[in-house]
Input
Amino acid sequence: MQSISRELQGISETKAANTALDYKHLCSEAINEMRDKNSYNFLICVDGSELGDLVLNNILNLRKKNDFLTVFHATKNDDKVENFDFKSTAVKSKIETHLIATLLPKYYTLCWRARDVYDDGSMQSVRDAVIQLLTEYRIYKYTHSLAYSDNSNEVFTLPTTKQPDFLVLGHLGRKGLSKHNNELTTLGSTADITLKSAHIPCILMKKPVTTTSKFYSIAVDNSDLSKAGLDILLTLVKPRDKLRVIHVFDTNSLTDENLNILKDYYNNELNNFGPSDAEVVVITKINDNEVMTDLICNWVEENSPDYFAITPKAREGNDLSSLTASIITRAPCNIILCKQ
Output
């Protein structure tokens, strides 16, 4: 298992990648399959912290009646954990108590996994443990095998054979760049690396959402990529929720006629599939000095949505685009990331 953990970035050597062609194909296929589902599996990462509690509470508030929760915790030896609240047994007890009081057992499962210890004494990082689980789901999806390869004697155990539809992580709200293992990151290292590797939509939780009806928003343009992003967001939106579809109109790159075509498309989608309180909002870029990120983040700050969705291009292992990274770090709300 140690070698598998060390070489997770070489996923192209696994049967999963050989079958799935490439990373972009994986992301697109995951989203296409979601359109045919009536319920979803949320893979939720918790760690015993207040942020982990926020993640779980928000998902319990967000989930629909038949949605499934897979709660994941990467553990280490409790004897080496000083804070009792972070010991794996304490985390498990707290999570189980909360879920038993909230959901029927058929709607959730717990996945407590010990992090690998390598020959040099170092321990597998949490981010690699998350990526490893996602990799194993990939392999099982395309091969229905629990072995890492045809020639491997190493097998794995999945908490459920239900493929995860969303990966849910907490985000500490770090501003700007930080350095981890000589790499600049815009998020904490776990969220940053995991987001680059995940082939399913991700939800980054920053703030609690306690209201029954929620306020969703999404940035769109006229691309097929963006239209697919709205499809994914609509799988989460309930009839009593509020939805705003945001488009930044740049008069230098889009004509009034094209803008009207864009508005007609999204208004039609909202009329057919959106909640009753839904509309398209156009933000006009007045001059070249205005930055799209500033316009979007200013709108978020003024309107206070609970969730803001963006649809970046799928590029495994590469940095998030500057627009995506900036919105993730600056927008004062939870973020839904729909790679396509």
